[in-house]
Specification:
CATH architecture of the largest domain: 3-Layer(aba) Sandwich
InterPro entries: HAD-like_hydrolase_sf, HAD-like_sf, HAD-SF_hydro_IA, HAD_sf, PGP-like_dom2, PhnX-like
Strand order of the largest sheet: 5-4-1-6-7-8
Radius of gyration: 17 Å
Helix content: 40-55%
CATH topology of the largest domain: Rossmann fold
Largest sheet: 6 strands, parallel
Protein name: Phosphonatase-like hydrolase
Order of helices and strands: EEHHHHEHEHEHEHEHEH
Number of domains: 2
GO molecular function, one term: phosphoglycolate phosphatase activity
Number of helices: 10
GO cellular component, one term: cytosol
GO biological process, one term: DNA repair
Length: 226
């Protein structure tokens, strides 16, 4: 029986037009690079953003320079704050309908993200979502010691709600690292969704228990476990 579903935010439950990864790409390229958005998404999607910068530089430029990462991250945070000031943020199609359907089944809804808490809360506030209303808990990259693909954020949520068995948890996300995170937490269902960072083929490479194209397609998967 599934007692809790943990959802990624951007690209999964939140539509912010990839502004974070576009801004990340700009900040990295301003340091003397010329990476495409696809390259940034391929290596950075779902990760804590400092780690995303580090991964992108290591894979595509062979660079392992903490000072450079810190400099790019500082630039990124300033640019992101400016971008969010005027950004229109929308729920992904059927997100609130799905949350309501899960609540009717007494299933806990958790949002988790590779963003820091300030960024994540700004997204939630723009949507008009409230903890305890649309969702039950928000867990961010700055709430735990280790980030995706480590399972710390999911384990944090499980402990918060007194869940001890990963077989009672599902994870849904738009990137390979979301699926890896869920598997590392022992989640029974690890589901990719094609509305965000990674393509169907990329998601398939992580061998999830399911891949969906719309959030409401999650319900049959959850109900099948019941």
């Amino acid at each position: 029986m599934i007692k809790m579903v943990v959802f990624d935010m951007a690209g999964t439950t939140v539509d912010e037009n990839n502004v974070v990864y576009k801004t990340l790409r700009t900040a990295i390229n301003e340091a003397g690079y010329n990476f495409s958005l696809d390259e940034v998404l391929a290596q950075g999607a779902g990760k804590e953003k400092r780690q995303a910068i580090k991964s992108i530089l290591q894979v595509y430029a062979g660079k392992d320079d903490e000072a450079l990462v810190d400099s790019i991250y500082a630039n990124f945070i300033v640019q992101l704050a400016d971008a969010y000031a005027s950004l229109e943020v929308l729920p992904q199609p059927n997100a609130t309908d799905l949350f309501g359907a899960l609540a009717e089944r007494d299933i806990i809804v958790v949002l988790n993200t590779g963003y820091n808490r300030e960024t994540a809360e700004s997204l939630v506030n723009k949507l008009g979502w409230e903890e305890g209303v649309e969702f039950d808990l928000l867990v961010t990259a700055t709430d735990v010691d280790k980030n995706r693909p480590n399972p710390d954020m999911i384990l944090f949520a499980m402990e918060h709600f007194g869940i001890t068995d990963g077989a009672e948890v599902a994870k849904v996300g738009d990137s390979i690292i979301d699926i890896e995170e869920g598997r590392n937490a022992g989640c029974l269902l690890n589901v990719g969704i094609t509305t965000g960072a990674h393509t169907l083929e990329q998601l398939q490479s992580a061998n999830p228990e399911g891949i969906i194209n719309d959030l409401l397609e999650l319900l049959p998967l959850v109900d099948a476990v019941e």
